[in-house]
Amino acid sequence: MQVEDLRHKLPNITDPGLLKALSEYGNIHEFKAGKVITEPGQFIKMVPIVLEGSIKILRMDDDGKELFLYFLEPGETCALSLTCCSASKPSEIKAVAEENTVILGVPIQKHEEWTDQFKQWKDFVSMTYQSRFQEMLVALDAVAFKRMDERLMRYIVTKMKQHKTNELHTTHQEIANELGTSREVISRLLKQLEKKKWIELGRNVIYIRDDFEELISN
Amino acid sequence: MQVEDLRHKLPNITDPGLLKALSEYGNIHEFKAGKVITEPGQFIKMVPIVLEGSIKILRMDDDGKELFLYFLEPGETCALSLTCCSASKPSEIKAVAEENTVILGVPIQKHEEWTDQFKQWKDFVSMTYQSRFQEMLVALDAVAFKRMDERLMRYIVTKMKQHKTNELHTTHQEIANELGTSREVISRLLKQLEKKKWIELGRNVIYIRDDFEELISN
DNA sequence: GCAATTTAGTAATATAAGTCACATAGAAAA
DNA sequence: TTTTCTATGTGACTTATATTACTAAATTGC
Asked: Name one GO molecular function term (chains A, B) (predicted).
């Protein structure tokens, strides 16, 4: 990818040397919405920087039960890939393209070189660790301290913001998977929200009231 | 603290320049076992490196409910303090001295200088992020995917290893706090373990069978 | 020693969530 | 159109955990 395009896609990266290096050594990969990018056990060969679209990061347990952790948005990378790469350990998480997504893959050894070479890369990595840590805490708070109804409402808000819409096109089963519960539980809780007139349910779609976020915070 | 003492306490740090800097700018703080070092909302003025003893890191919710995350042992530091310091945000966690503990406090601005100045400091910070991230995943797995009985058994193993003993001197209430549940639940589950002859219960003490860890993994 | 406090045991009950079973509705395929 | 498949709705039931209420034992302070 050309330096000029990268400068445009990654406005936080301004160091010309770093942009040149990214352009030279980074590989473009494209994933269609829903495509599984990495699964637990797989070895990661590069640090992925999201250029377009977004990636959903999930934790899985041994029985295949899943738990949504956070989204990676344009300009961001995954702390776990940094971790896994450095330790050359297999992936601890599942990554799925949430939309059609374009990433720039940085080879591991370049990542290590650049932390010494470019202050901006070092700061980028440090910033990544910081923000992912925060998001892990949010995910932890949810499972440790919140009931499923509240977790579901927060999930809806997160997805709404991510897709910039108040129509979610998804199934109850998929929500259940990402919250690590069963479909019946989600169907019931959604029905309760519908009874309160906060959402409307259709097949494969949930219509959400514009003031949903204010409603749930009270 | 003298460079020679630090070299002895922190065998992973070998760079003479870094050791000298740590000796010059680091401040020694001592905490008695049980002393609360940081609470949520408090601002952190330094990066703490454990020299002796250990520190217990807990997450708290708004109602004061707690959840044990991990221990910091000699030679380790807290990723969250790195995060909070850099972002100058208040602490997200509670830190309590698990034993009588000695820490070396590194001023924030020195931390930032040293990441550029000393490769070994940069690696130390990076390593810290990596290992804390792993431990966050372990904590997350527990609350997301495990039942309380299994969490309790793992908790017992963690404490045993930490204190290098098979006598835990603690109360049911304290265990309940750290696992984010109620005292009655812990009393009942401990009683079940006693019935299986895996532990013996006394007042303020739990005696654990030597082969406890093998027993629970089957 | 005796009263007060802390710690532990436990039964009864309540609640959130998970599971099972089955009905139905809409969409897609034949 | 009819069949098939997928998604949803819902009652009945189970289970794990939380809460309430109380007792008793051990320890501490007087």
From this structure: DNA binding
Residue B51's nearest CA partner among B76, B71, B23 is B76
Residues B156, B134: one domain? Answer: no
Please indicate whether, in this complex, the C-beta atoms of A145 and B92 are within 8 angstroms of each other: no
Q: Is the pLDDT of residue A31 over 70?
A: yes
Same domain? For A115 and A37 the reply is yes
- From chain B, the residues in CB contact with A132 under 8 A are 133
Q: Which domain holds residue B202?
A: 146-216
In terms of domains, do B97 and B25 share one?
A: yes
- The answer to whether A47 touches A125, Cβ cutoff 8 Å, is no
Token couple for A212: 């949903």
Q: Give, for all 218 residues of chain B, the pLDDT tens digit.
A: 788 899 999 999 999 999 999 999 999 999 999 999 999 988 888 999 999 999 999 999 998 899 999 999 999 999 888 876 666 678 889 999 999 999 999 998 999 899 989 999 999 998 999 899 999 999 999 999 999 999 999 999 999 999 999 999 999 999 999 999 999 999 999 999 999 999 999 999 999 999 999 998 87
Q: Domain ends where: A94, A111, A143? A: A143
Quote the CA–CA distance of A125 and A141 in Å, as a whole number: 24
The reply to whether A61 Cβ lies less than 7 angstroms from strand C is no
Alpha-carbon span B92 to B105, nearest angstrom: 18
Residue A173 is part of a domain; what is its CATH number?
A: 1.10.10.10
A36 and A120 belong to one structural domain = yes
The answer to whether the beta carbon of residue A172 comes closer than 7 angstroms to any atom of strand D is: yes
Tokens 């908790």 found at:
B155
Contact present, A60 and A66 (Cβ < 8 Å) = yes
CA angle centred on B144, ends B139 and B148, rounded to 5°: 80
